[in-house]
Amino acid sequence: MEFVDVLKSRRSIRAFAPTPVSREQVERLLGKALESPSWSNTQPYKVALAMGPELEQLRQELSGRFARASALQKASLPKKIVGALRGGVMPDGDFKPILKYPKDLQPRRVATGIGLYSVLGIARDDHAARDAQMARNFSFFDAPVVMFVFVHDGLGAYSALDAGIFIQSLMLAATDEGLGSCAQGALALWRSPVEARFAIDKSYKLLCGLSLGYPLDQPVNRFKPERRTVAEILLPSHGTN
Ligand SMILES: Cc1cc2nc3c(=O)[nH]c(=O)nc-3n(C[C@H](O)[C@H](O)[C@H](O)COP(=O)(O)O)c2cc1C
Prior knowledge:
- The chain is α+β, with helices and mostly antiparallel strands and 241 residues long.
- The protein has a single domain (3-222), classed as NADH Oxidase, CATH 3.40.109.
- 43% of the residues lie in helices and 12% in strands.
- The longest helix has 23 residues, at 52-74.
- The N and C termini lie far apart (47 Å).
- Bound molecules: flavin mononucleotide.
């Protein structure tokens, strides 16, 4: 594919086909993504790659946690306390989840949510259907491959910057090979299920997940949220005098 076509055709995929992807292909994609630049070439990221039975275990564990956490959210205060004390429900991710968006960013977030739910045929006030769609994150949208990206905590925001570049390279390399992907902040909510299955140094923090596989031909996979214009992101200059 032409580079610009790869760039323009990549979309977040939220419905994957069961078609398997070989570990060899995933490792080839990771190798391509390792061409990415990074701060002093430190490449401050590690990837937990799950496929097959390991992925199934994580799917069950994370889906269960999400189901228990959302039930708890709707429960009475005493039940909330008991549930929280029981453990395994409260997020134990390394970074705080964003509960309130900055005012100036919120409209784009809302517009994207409305667009996505409308493509999925979910009414705005249908909370059960919205919950079910959110839950799909934790079954990795049925993808046969999932990755959890960890970043070194010694570089602060710069390791997240490097990981972001790495993830984009990975997603573009996947698109170029006919695969689809979805970066998922939702998969950073719980660290312990991933840590139970992979040897992770404490200095590496869970930043983001990524599902990978062949996209199904469904409207949700063609949803393209609106982008800002170049004029909108360019800062006005104070002028030379
Ligand atoms: C860091 C990051 C985290 C994201 N987290 C999620 C997520 O948890 N669930 C989800 O469905 N999409 C997630 N997305 C996908 C975005 O919603 C998507 O990139 C955005 O709406 C633009 O759409 P596009 O990727 O199709 O161009 C994430 C994307 C990024 C880059």
